[in-house]
Structure formats: structure tokens, C-alpha cells
Write a structure and sequence with these properties.
This protein is an alpha/beta fold. The protein has helices spanning 15-29, 76-82, 107-122, 135-143, 167-176, 196-209, 225-237, 252-261, 276-283, 296-300, 312-324, 326-339, 345-357; strands spanning 4-11, 36-41, 50-51, 66-71, 88-93, 129-132, 149-151, 183-187, 215-219, 244-248, 264-267, 288-291, 305-307. The strands form two sheets. The protein has a seven-stranded parallel beta sheet with strand order 3-2-1-4-5-6-7, sandwiched between helices. It has a six-stranded parallel beta sheet with strand order 10-9-8-11-12-13, sandwiched between helices. α11 packs across α12.
């Protein structure tokens, strides 16, 4: 095996695109030829990829090449790969959100997710090795009858979490909370499976019982507008218009300012393949309160308060402990710093290369 080539649906900045670039570098450092193929590229990645159909046409194909596909949603690339006859195939499963989360909100996204799950099942017979980016993802590959599976985490460079803090934004946030009031932070796109509505309900109760001056920041772009509209309506119904802020997409410096001033990261998401904001919070010394769904428990471990249920009262009590008890707060922050070693790029690279090299 001289070459390990990667394929993605769309090659762009973000968790999958950044991971793909780091995997390519790790493969090249290990002595493999490695190119990236996709149907489309954007966001500045346009000069770093080949169109998927150029494999074997403009990029030489060898019988012993290993082809790795990063699965996150249905794509023409996956169907095309299924018809490549000779080369061995590796499925890197980033997870696909179950369609029931989106059926009431976004038919287009629902179609893409259903298509992806159909492809995930169909490609099991074609696959030499299935790699889950978490144990949760690996177990799902087992459910789809993948013969051989392994876990190799995302390749994350923690230096990318060293956001240059936007000083002006930091001062603005500190001024807003001056005197009293804790800041809840939720990071990620606004989407049904992230369950921001549950965070809003818990926050409303928290303000009534513990901290009338608390503020909730949702940092991230809107992924599903109809769901965002419903969240806005809920905020208004609960009388929280001045206490909840949806920032939309922010710069790295602004994100750094939010982490620098937040008192707690709250995640009520019901479907996470890994959960990068959880790792960012650990890195930035922000305590975590999270609902223990999907891969969240294995990501957070003892570095946060992981709840088996997310009733508003349970969440409010957990946040009050994480924010108001210095012993709990300090223990969570220290545990988070220690836990990051499990997700270091060195550890993740070693696991990935080990899984691939075992194929011979």
C-alpha cells in the first residue's frame, strides 16, 4: 500500500475539512501518497483537492491504493466510490443525524440524511475497515453490519483553540455582566438535534430560582431557519428577550472572547458524534453541563456534569453547582485539562495509522 486517498462530499473549512487536511499530512509524513477528492470545494479549499471522478483519470490509480471516505451526509461521491471495482475501501464515519430530528423542520436536509444512511448501509459490503471517530460511531457501524471496525478520533490541533481574544468583544461581554449575573454559553449551529429549545427552558428556570441577571449566548450560525424561528418565539414567550442572545457566525476572536468570559458551557444536544465545543470548553477552562446523549459521555467523561435526563430543574441545579460551588468548578476545570490528553493529535494520529497499517 503506497497511497491512501481521501474522499469527501464537499471539501470546506470545518470539522471534517480540517480533519481531512490533518489526516493527509499525517499520511504523507508516514510515507504514503495522499490526495483529497470531492465533488465540490469552497471556503478557500478550492486549490487543495481533485474532483472525485478524476481519480484514475488525472490521478493515477493503483490496485493497492486504499480509498477512505468521510461519511456525514448522502452524496454522489459515495455512490461513485461504490462502483470503483478494485481498490480497498475504508469508511470514516463522522455520524449522520437521524432523520426524525429534521422531518418537521427541513425536508431538504431530511432527504440528505436519509440518503446518507442508505449509503452507509449499502457500503458495508464494499468496506474493508470501518473507522468510527468515537466509540459511539463505531457501534453504529456494527449495527450496519460492518465486518471490521476500529476507533480513531478526530485529528484536532489544540493550537486552533488558542483564539486570539477580541479585546473589544471581551470588554463588551464583561461590561454586560458587571456586578452580577453568570453567562451561559452554547456553541454550535442552531439546529433541531442540538435542542437549543431545551437549553432555553432550563435557563428560564435558572433565572427564576438562582440568578435573575444570568445571560445566555448561543454562538453559531443558523442551520435550520424554521427551528431558529421557533426558538425566537420561545424566548419571547418566556420573557427572555433581553437575556438571550443569538450571535450568529462569529470570528475566531469573538469566539475566544465568549470562552474567556463564560461561566459554563451548556449542551442539551441529543446527537453528537464527538462534540468539538465540549473539547474547546475543556481547553479554555469552562465548566461543562451536558445531556448525556450519543458520544457526549465518552467525550466529556469526568470533565463535566453529564445528565441522564434534561428536565429544566435538573439542568438548573447542575449549572448552579458548576457555577456557584468553587470546589465543583475547580474540579471540573482540572479534569477537563487532564482529559484533553485522550484527544491529542499525537494520540489520534497513532490510532489512525495503526488501524490503517494493520490492513497491510
Amino acid at each position: 500500500m503506497k497511497a491512501v486517498h481521501q474522499f469527501v462530499a464537499t471539501f470546506e473549512p470545518g470539522a471534517i475539512g480540517d480533519h481531512t487536511i490533518r489526516v493527509q499530512q499525517a499520511l504523507r509524513d508516514a510515507g504514503y501518497e495522499s490526495e483529497i477528492f470531492a465533488e465540490y470545494a469552497k471556503g478557500g479549499f478550492e486549490d487543495r483537492f481533485h474532483v472525485h471522478s478524476d481519480y484514475s483519470r488525472k490521478v493515477r490509480a493503483n490496485d493497492d491504493d486504499l480509498l477512505m471516505y468521510h461519511m456525514a451526509i448522502g452524496s454522489n461521491v459515495a455512490d461513485w466510490l461504490n462502483d470503483v471495482p478494485k481498490q480497498r475501501f475504508v469508511m470514516a464515519h463522522h455520524n449522520i443525524t437521524p432523520v426524525e430530528f429534521y422531518e418537521p423542520w427541513d425536508p431538504g436536509v431530511t432527504y440528505g440524511m436519509a440518503w446518507g444512511r442508505d449509503q452507509l448501509a449499502k457500503l458495508a459490503k464494499r468496506t474493508t475497515l470501518g473507522i468510527g471517530l468515537s466509540e459511539y460511531n463505531r457501534r453504529e457501524l456494527d449495527e450496519f453490519h460492518y465486518k471490521s471496525t476500529a476507533v480513531a478520533p478526530l485529528l484536532i490541533d489544540f493550537a486552533s483553540f488558542d483564539h486570539l481574544v477580541d479585546a473589544s468583544k471581551r470588554e463588551q461581554l464583561l461590561e454586560r455582566k458587571a456586578g452580577s449575573g453568570s453567562d451561559w454559553l452554547s456553541v454550535g449551529w442552531i439546529a433541531p438535534h442540538k435542542c437549543q429549545h431545551d437549553t432555553i427552558r432550563a435557563f428560564s428556570l435558572y433565572r427564576r430560582i438562582y440568578d435573575a441577571n444570568a445571560h445566555l449566548y448561543f454562538v453559531g450560525r443558523t442551520g435550520t431557519q424554521s427551528y431558529r424561528d421557533a426558538c425566537d418565539k420561545l424566548v419571547a414567550q418566556l420573557g427572555l428577550t433581553d437575556a438571550v442572545t443569538f450571535t450568529g457566525r462569529v470570528s475566531d476572536g469573538e469566539l475566544g472572547a465568549h470562552y474567556a468570559t463564560a461561566d459554563v458551557l451548556v449542551s442539551m444536544s441529543e446527537h453528537e458524534g464527538v462534540g468539538i465545543p465540549l473539547l474547546e470548553a475543556m481547553y479554555n477552562g469552562v465548566p461543562i453541563v451536558a445531556f448525556g446523549a450519543a458520544a457526549v459521555p465518552e467525550t466529556v467523561g469526568n470533565a463535566g456534569i453529564v445528565l441522564p435526563v434534561k428536565r429544566p430543574a435538573k439542568v438548573a441545579v447542575a449549572v448552579a453547582r458548576a457555577v456557584g460551588d468553587p470546589l465543583v468548578q475547580g474540579a471540573l476545570i482540572r479534569a477537563g485539562k487532564a482529559r484533553l490528553a485522550l484527544f491529542s493529535i499525537e494520540t489520534a494520529t497513532k490510532r489512525l495509522l495503526g488501524a490503517l497499517q494493520a490492513l497491510g
